[in-house]
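=== Structure Prediction Worksheet ===
Name of assembly: unnamed complex
Input type: mixed (protein and possibly other molecules)
Chain count: two
Listed entries:
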Amino acid sequence: MNVVVIGLSHHSSPVELRERFAFAEARIPGALKSLRGSGVADEAVIVSTCNRVELYAATSVEPAKAFAELREFLLRWGETPSSPNQNAKSGIEGLSPHHKGIYALAEPHSLHHLFKVACGLDSMVLGETEILGQLKAAYDLALKHAHTGPRLNKAFQRAFHVAKHVRTHTNIQRGSVSVASVAVELAEKIFSSLGDREVLVIGAGDTSEKTARALLSRGARNIIVANRSLDRAQALAGELGGRAVPFDDWAGEFSKIDIVISSTAAPHHILDRAKLEPLMKTRRQRPLLLIDIAVPRDIDPGVNFLENVYLYNVDDLQGIADDYLKLRQEEIARCEAIIAEKVKPLLEAKAFLPQMGTDGHRFGTLPADA
Amino acid sequence: MLVTWFTDRHFFLLAVAFYGLSTVYSVFLWRIGFRRDDHANYFLLLAAFALHTAAMVKRGFSIAHCPVNNLYEATTFFAWTIVAAYLVIGLLPRLRFLGAFASPVLLAIGVFALMPALDPPHGPQPEFSGALVSLHAATILLAYGAFGLGAVASAMFLMQQHDLKFHKLRAVLSLFPPIQRLEIVAIQLVLAGFILLTVGLAAGRHLPRPADAAYWTDPKVLWSIFLWFVYLALLVLRRLRVPSSRGLAVSFIAAFVFLLLTFWGTNLLSPLHHP
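=== Predicted Assembly ===
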């Protein structure tokens, strides 16, 4: 019996196409039942996320035939709107039965692919871990409705195990790849705990809001928002569970706060060395992390030379995020070697051998006449 | 057969070899930006500690006394307290990297202690004896060990703080603990050292001494009292939040370097400690 996968992802298709094939969670059990009822799949799992829609099936049908039927199933599903506005939103040409965005893989590539997806190697943000949770949820749903069997159970469980192994033994999930999460990571390198830290947000921009939320999610205690428009400051403070202060009063908060996120539209520096130096004296040698995500910059770079001050601007944060991404990319080869090693016993396992496809070659995009 | 020729100094020599290995591994850790967990270094220092302990126990049994009776013994005890304290603190994964900073210090002290001149043969009895002498010597050497590890934590703080200040990628990639925690660890170690030094000096005040030996003018006593005031001043200033975190770390390192460079000299100059 061969494990096959057919589907489309952010690598192969634009969102306009992916959204047409997306399976709403409530409809997946029905889809799985229909798929197995068609006789093409003995076992099946449907993975449907914002970046991919994939059907994993264990089938005793010859792979080329199985792919044709599975693709037909997928196309049929794509023509059935799962939400009332689905077709209205898509705005693309009708689905071609020979659409190039759909890929199909048989063993061993299907198993390699499953493992790569579980490890985050096929994700839009390389190494991200959310996909593992989504994969587990998809598998659990199929398992709960008894649409899996020994082949897919073993394949998925091994994929989860490999994902854990890769996470532990490589740097593929190491570090933060967004500005907000890098800011949080820096804060964690300075302060012994984020649990009792106060954060001052100057200027209620989108990135500063994201950064503040990220800090709150890691335990920051209190958020103070200062904005030229007090209404906007109050609205953001309300959303973040903090308090708003008038823009001209933010300097008065400096004795209490530990982290400043600044993103105003001011054309000049709103904080410079002359202004910060006396404020630092009220802080009793406590460190101060300044995150300047405004362009043009809000904070004079010279303040970084003051004792206990750590200043990062948007380029510094983006630079760290990019370096992390490079590091992750350098880890791909190691991860793939681990995957190749872990797939091997699965392919050699007795349960797979008797009914495996004859050549196990990569089928890739289905030919037009398949 | 082994027992007859394999002396405590051989055990100590092996321990120093492990400190050397740990130093080499520390250079490797530094080269890769302290990204890998420091298990290997911890186990190297654990092995060194076992050999070091064996050396001290063997010496202690051979003289039937706590082995702190000459400069070799005092120096090895001093190094032993540093590695013992590290092994306890290093149980916390993030503080395990202290070992990478401690091992070069341990290697240097160990190589110095192996100089034969520091370990003249004992007479039938050690030069000094008595429980109070042991308490005095042991607590003071423990204090030096705590100051040493405090300086090591401060060095780690300075490296991490520099990396954070100048946006080095190593600051976020390394597995170092936050700088605030490193500062707290350094202060606590120095405080522990200060308490031990106080106890050791108080015990030393009540020791019997030769009639012709002056106490208050003895170079080692004066040096120890000076050291006591230096550390007291640093702790009080810290309490008053006068020095910056960086300034405090530099001061802890400077005080320990002064201690290291003058410890042996004052010992040799002291009629009380080197009759």
